[in-house]
Specification:
Blueprint lengths: L7 H10 L23 E5 H7 L1 H38 L5 H55 L3 E5 L16 H25 L1
Parallel strand pairs: 1-2
């Protein structure tokens, strides 16, 4: 019974690219700073960000684990239900009409409960995934705002091969590595602080 699928990568990519589905019009905007060394418009490769951001990888692993556990639970219950159906098919002919009606009603209710459980598990996982995507987007956005203030960037675009309005850009405008390294450093510090707090408790 294939029930739950984790679409974390695609969800993150869609979320991250959502604000940049069309190339911004940059006529009249300087492409370098007044000093002539720092570009005003830079971009982040969202594919590389997803591949290398440790927080994203931890979230994906955790949600995949929850999804697999929920699927195993549902599969176990579905198999038990199937065995009940098979037993009824084998013994139903020996039952009275009333017993058959009661058994069929009970099996039907069980089937409905399984379907509701499947839907509920899928909705819960999708809701948690959506919340995590928002957290990831907020983390990236917060850092990019800070970085733009420090560097004087006027615009930070996203690039994803095959799904981007940017067909070509000078590699010097790619700040992906800098962004990923800073995000990972912040996340490592955050995890270390959380581990220290947990140890003290």
């Amino acid at each position: 019974m294939k029930v739950l699928k984790i679409s974390l990568g695609l969800a993150m990519a869609a979320s991250f690219l959502g604000a940049c589905t069309e190339a911004p019009k940059v006529e009249g905007v300087n492409t370098t700073s007044e000093a002539g060394t720092t570009p005003d418009i830079v971009y982040v490769n969202s594919d590389s960000l997803l591949t290398n951001y440790e927080y994203f990888k931890d979230v994906r692993t955790r949600l995949q684990g929850k999804g697999q556990k929920a699927e195993q639970n549902l599969r176990s219950q579905a198999e038990a239900f199937q065995k009940e159906v098979e037993r009824y098919q084998q013994t139903g002919q020996n039952m009275s009409a009333q017993q058959r009606a009661q058994t069929e009603q009970r099996l039907q209710q069980k089937q409905q409960q399984l379907q509701q459980l499947q839907q509920s598990a899928g909705n819960d996982l999708a809701g948690e995934e959506s919340e995590e995507m928002k957290k990831i987007y907020d983390r990236v956005e917060e850092y990019l705002k800070k970085l733009s203030e420090e560097k004087g960037y006027e615009m930070v675009l996203t690039y994803s091969r095959g799904n981007s309005a940017i067909l070509y850009s000078d590699p010097s405008r790619d700040i992906t590595t800098e962004v990923v390294n800073a995000l990972n450093e912040a996340y490592t510090t955050e995890k270390a602080a959380a581990d220290t707090t947990a140890t003290k408790k």
